[in-house]
Fold this protein.
Amino acid sequence: MSSGDARKKNAVEKLFALVDCNNFYASCERVFNPALRHKPVVVLSNNDGCVIARSEEAKALGIRMGVPAFEIESLLTAHGVAVFSSNYALYGDFSSRVMATLAALVPSMEIYSIDEAFLDLTGISPEGAEALAQRIRKTVLKHTGIPVGIGVAPTKTLAKIANHLAKKNKMPVCLLKGEEEITEVLQQTPVGEVWGIGRQYSAKLTARGIITAYDLSRAPEEWVRREMTVTGLRTRQELCGISCLALEEAVPARQAICTSRSFGKPQGEPGPLEEAIATFATMCAAKLRRGKSAATQMMVFIHTNAFRTDQPQYARNRVITLATPTNDSILLVKAAVEALRAIYRPGYLYKKAGVIVTGLVPEGEVQQDLFSSAETGKHRKLMESLDEVNRRYGRQTLQVATQGTTRKWRLRQEKLSPGYTTRWSDLMEIRLT
DNA sequence: TCTGGGGTCCTAGGACCC
DNA sequence: TCTGGGGTCCTAGGACCC
């Protein structure tokens, strides 16, 4: 069966759009800082470690994604690149604005990531889809200041490819339809660029002579399934135009929440480590409460700097099962510190630590433990007040004592932009003279 | 001196049960 | 020689994503 025949088997020809914000973090930094227009901009990861977003001008300078900032310091200075620490409060807020704008323009959408959304355009003619995509792009730009690119195709995987193509050709919208056009594009797409094909699979496929996305769409189904599991098989079918990945409108309940950081300076003493772990535990607790869920298990991990092969290495984690599912900061801090004490060893320089909570259940369904319910009830009121204070006066205004005040472990964040849209004190001022 | 953070899904294999 | 078979649950590890 040719892929064309297979496509016809779909009762209704589906059509998906992928909307992707261009260089999202860099674009956010630009909105309130027009002086940065047409200038190279990069945004660094937490701890000012690696480059995680680049404006077009920065890409043109040859700055690669993920490159450590210290390796390109002279390049950044020489070209007057504007450098920012990541400001997730700002990006999260812009993301909400973009998504709200999209939601008002289409009947059904899936928020796929902070800067991407899939839209269902099934039933719309190719010309209609193209016009709608153009309108979406203009509206988002006008309402939020964020430029987006849009790829449209019969499956999500093909819509991703259409979106890449739009970027490559510096076109705002790319519509991919019709067997011949799709075949031609797939033949020009390296298999590693396909959504769902990462480094490992890319190497394996290339070694087997599967070089392009088209080759993968023609590979024997049995082989793909055996070597790449059903996930790989779905990707193969999607490349053939058979839609296997549906639009997921409802946000599935989280399964895990993680808070982890690299330290600005490596830490050897137990004190600062405990303060860091306690802080991560309270951040997990706050995220749990915001999502109205509670955790049944917690994992605490610490490790040394793996890049420093000249130093002794150590990495351990410890899982604690909580007697009753909880989102109480005080109980979670207690558990986290206990876990840390069990795995901490002196004589190492720790670079990173984190807390992961799992086994999440809805807050309302928690079975109260007979022996601790009185304590839990008291704490609940306290947590509500804590969240309210921190919401009003900024994160970490009220803390659990174990979090400490030295913050020796804190992030390096030397180039943070203001919280233009999320902190009253950072609101932009305009002087009319 | 400096190298991110937060998620998901799938499978194989072991433990355990009847 | 040859040691049941089938089901469920859990975990670790490997792959991927942005």
Residues 52, 112-116, 195-201, 228-229, 231-232 of chain A lie near DNA strand C (CB under 10 Å from a C1').
